[in-house]
Design brief:
alpha/beta, 8-stranded mixed β-sheet
Length: 470
């Protein structure tokens, strides 16, 4: 019999719906897994066992009364510790907010609760979400279940570690330059960065309000689609959230296919200084899509190197603006890596910042013409280097860290500036016994298409059957 923790979110929810398992049993299975493994992985900043058990008991009583259980009814999740819940601590991975209790609850969390999901606690993360490796001076390194000596990827480090190690059935992360896709890729998971504005950011700690995205990390494509289905859509509390109708993502994953789709291969920039093993893994994915009936085409997306500078102008300026008060009054409470990155934002001029924002619509329009005229979506590596070790990223003085950041997030960062949806998927082959990953990128609001093709790839490669040997 399959262990409860090894069930996918979808299978666990079906079991609850049938009455084969209770929500409390799922919660206790996760808590047992946390107790057994989190001392090694450090995925949780805070485990809220009593709250989760009480929520589960209430859910099970309502289930017996035939109350509607919702899309995610009874399923225990855990989230990056930057999603506000009124009256409960939200640390944002920082010393400054170690005891912060917000007065509001994020829309994403409210929507998950309305769909019946439960919450196991706050997950470890890079301090203020400002690191693609997940380094954290205050709460310690979060470790990769595939090999605890290696990074999880960041900044949603705890999300990657907790879901991969079966301590939670899914998680919300955030993605400003790759912070959902990188931990998903390094930890062997599915990670979706939706179209900018697809999901409300109300009640979510901001890093760069022009680049931030909310999205899920899960073990399977359908699990991912279930969570995005629950949280996507316009929110009156977030004026930047899109009014574009939400597609039926579940329809796509229930009828997956890659046949008839044109997939463009992103070379050039995405192969720059890439490790051979990563390119081999990418090429294997290309062959899989050919076998699935997709048409593989070469595309010319133009020169995207300048997008890194434009992203840096935006992210640096906006982060410096958000942290200006604390930098004046609590500078000593920042970790050295994060402090160095935020202070660098003050070096950018207002002209650089506004220029980067003004150019954005034109660049997006031109990229769509260049890249998507001849293909439906783009395939690229999620990262083009083998996962680094934790000790290689523990650069306390911040010197050399910018170079490391550029290497780790080289393949993900451009699509935050471009606003496009991007989904990271594990490749079936391990590289040095660690996961590797590809990402599929589509035009704005084409998440349904990504789920359709990703579901076919998952079925073909069976990547979701692999588990780390804890």
């Amino acid at each position: 019999m399959t262990e409860l923790i090894d069930l996918s979110l979808d299978d666990a929810q079906k079991a609850v719906r049938r009455g084969d398992v209770t929500s409390l049993e799922l919660v206790e299975a996760c808590l047992n897994q946390i107790e057994e493994h989190d001392n090694k992985l450090n995925a949780f900043i805070r485990v809220e066992s009593e709250i989760a058990q009480t929520q589960a008991e209430t859910f099970d009583k309502n289930r017996e009364s035939r109350v509607e259980i919702g899309l995610l009814g009874g399923i225990p999740l855990a989230h990056k510790d930057m999603y506000y819940r009124a009256g409960l601590v939200t640390t944002c991975g920082s010393k400054i907010r170690r005891d912060f209790k917000p007065k509001i609850t994020s829309t994403a969390i409210e929507r998950l609760a309305n769909a019946g999901a439960l919450n196991l606690g706050g997950l470890n993360m890079a301090e203020f979400a400002f690191s693609p490796t997940g380094h954290n001076t205050h709460f310690g390194a979060c470790r990769n279940p595939w090999n605890v000596e290696f990074v999880t990827g960041g900044s949603s480090s705890g999300s990657g570690s907790a879901v991969s190690s079966r301590m939670a059935f899914g998680s919300l992360g955030s993605d400003t330059g790759g912070s959902i896709r990188l931990p998903a890729g390094f930890c062997g998971l599915v990670g979706m960065k939706p179209t900018q504005t697809r999901v409300s950011r109300y009640g979510v700690m901001g890093l760069s309000f022009s680049l931030d995205n909310v999205g899920p990390l899960t073990r399977t494509v359908k699990d991912n689609a279930l969570i995005l289905s629950a949280i996507a859509g316009h929110d009156p509390k977030d004026s930047t959230s899109s009014t574009q109708p939400v597609c039926n993502y579940l329809e796509a994953v229930d009828n997956p296919t890659a046949k008839g789709f044109k997939i463009g291969i992103a070379r050039g920039y995405f192969e720059d200084n890439a490790d051979d093993a990563i390119i081999e893994s990418r090429n294997s994915a290309i062959n899989s899509f050919r076998e699935l009936g997709a048409t593989i085409v070469e595309i010319d997306y133009g020169n995207i190197d300048p997008l890194n500078n434009l992203s840096a102008f935006i992210a640096g300026t906006e982060a410096a603006t958000l942290h200006a008060y604390w930098l004046r009054h609590r500078r000593a409470d920042y970790g050295p890596q994060v402090l160095a990155r935020i202070e660098a934002g003050f070096q950018f001029s207002g002209v650089d910042y506004l220029h980067a924002l003004q150019l954005r619509p034109k660049i997006v329009e031109q990229f769509v013409k260049n890249a998507f005229t001849n293909c439906d979506m783009i395939l690229a590596p999620t990262f083009n280097i083998t996962p680094p070790r934790i000790d290689e990223t523990d650069i306390e003085d911040g010197q050399g860290f910018e170079e490391l950041i550029s290497k780790v997030s080289h393949c993900t960062r451009p699509f935050n500036y471009l606003t496009f949806p991007s989904i990271s998927l594990p490749t079936p082959e391990l590289v040095n016994e660690m996961p590797a990953a590809i990402q599929l990128i589509a035009p704005p609001f084409c998440e349904k298409m990504l789920y359709c093709v990703s579901g076919a790839y998952e079925k073909h490669t069976a990547f979701s059957k692999r588990t780390p040997k804890l």
